[in-house]
Amino acid sequence: MTKFLTLKNAIAEIVKNGDTVALEGFTHLIPFAAGHEIIRQKLRDLTLIRMTPDLIYDQLVGAGCAKKLFFSWGGNPGVGSLHRVRDAIEHSYPCALEITEHSHAAMANAYEAGAAGLPLAVFRGYIGSELPLANKDISSITCPFTGEKLAAIPSIKPDVSIIHAQKADREGNVLIEGIIGVQKEVVLSAKRSIVTVEEIVDNLEVTPNACVLPAWAIDVVAVAPQGAKPSYALGYYDRDNSYYKEWDAISRNRETFNEWLQSHVLTQGDI
Amino acid sequence: MTTNNPLTEYTSAEMMTITAARALQNGMTCFVGIGLPSEAANVARLTHAPDVTLIYESGTLQTKPDVLPLSIGDGELCESALTTVSVPEMFRYWLQGGHIDVGFLGTAQIDRFANLNTTVIAANHQETGKDGAHSYANPRVRLPGGGGAPEISTNAKEVFITVKHSKRTFVEDVDFITTIGFGRDGKGRDNLSNIGRGPSVVITDLCILKPDSATKELIVTSLHPGTTKEDVIEATGWEIKFSETLETTPTPSKKELEVLRELKARTEKAHSAKEAI
Fold first, then answer.
1. Across the interface, do B70 and A89 touch by the CB < 8 Å criterion?
2. Is the pTM above the cut of 0.80?
3. DSSP chain A
4. Which of B75, B146, B155 sits opposite A234 (nearest CB)?
């Protein structure tokens, strides 16, 4: 059963050094506030999983929280590179970063397999791609009924998943609306989970097929208003596209990034 | 490059987008990549193909954005969509399930067999030759990676590619095959039953290329007005061949140019506006 904690207490209780952690949200509902709290608590040696590392993992990697990155598309969408991630891969700054790389279809399938309690994901993928040369986890399996060779990869089963959502009711049931990405799958695939929400409401007012995570499937709910900024929360605020463009200059060199880290993360918080 | 008629003056970038838009037919279902493909697909929707179905990998089905998205998951895509599904459902049911007519992709590198590289530019590819594993271990430039492209290219019925033409982009052999065109030898799709027919057209700012029906090597089938064969030869990293029935690409119409420019102006305005809190 879920419990309500402050974001600070949620991260302190759920995330440990060395954990495999997935902070998901496909462009939408990216849990930035939770990411910043991880930075403030100086968690280290994390294996970070995300389909699109986005600015949030550029920040966590730049702050020295990660030893490994597991991803399928690693850019600043529509803008360019993730400079902190590149600096870590290319120059081991602020520490070395190992990478494991997949395609989107592979990671989406692996999350779904994790949620389904299966050891592997099977899909029609990676045909003719050289990604299997770069990632030893990409294998194949032969269909026992048709003989077709299909791609096989291990399912994703993180220690911790963290997502942001629009709202929870007073029991901790959570409603996710809009681009739902892999929000449901990542929570169900993880050992422990945190959901940050814009607000707590008396009634979720759901339609019958809405994307709802029941309270008993979540460990912790934490209120984090505007917790997905500069990404967005449908119905609450828009994606701050100009911030994504500005990030390119902030992250491009170590000094400006470290100044940003100091003024925008380390000296903030305590929600 | 411009024509003499002031009403229909256009840039080579506009020529590329509008030619790419024309490749999409009304009624097609198109899985759209971000950037140039998204621009072209939306121009098609706003001109000759009002009933084209646009699908983005963020799960937005049948979307009709008023401005171009900066990211694959902008709110605009969701709010103007018929419905939005989860990302696993998008890749498993809608793409892998065989519902996509065309995958529309961009790329960082493309080779003569239309293989695409968005993973890594190698430090010393010339010395090591065609070895994706070596390129991956010896990167000069790290690119974003595969995203949706590796499976879009094989699970869509066909693939359109649009990319700016330069020697850096059009290489004889890509440093790394992120996404298959026709493989290192042109035979990568042979004898596979559950695979789309692959790239059918490549649209650049200079010309249109199509794979040769026998060898699958890309050849130039149409030159944009004002472009010479020498321009294309100069911008291509292999000995490019030209079709015996080489055509001249029709110029953009006034309507197409208006639609493209208005779309870009709306987009620019929307993305530069600071969000009001």
1. no
2. yes
3. --EE--HHHHHHHH--TT-EEEE--SSBS--HHHHHHHHHTT--SEEEE-SS-HHHHHHHHHTT-EEEEEES--EETTTEE-HHHHHHHHH--SS--EEEE--HHHHHHHHHHHHTT-SEEEES--TT-SHHHH-TT-EEEE-TTT--EEEEEEPP--SEEEEEEEEEETT--EEE-S--TTHHHHHHHSSEEEEEEEEEES-----TT-EEE-GGG-SEEEE-TTTTTTSBBTTTB---HHHHHHHHHHHHSHHHHHHHHIIIIIT----
4. B75
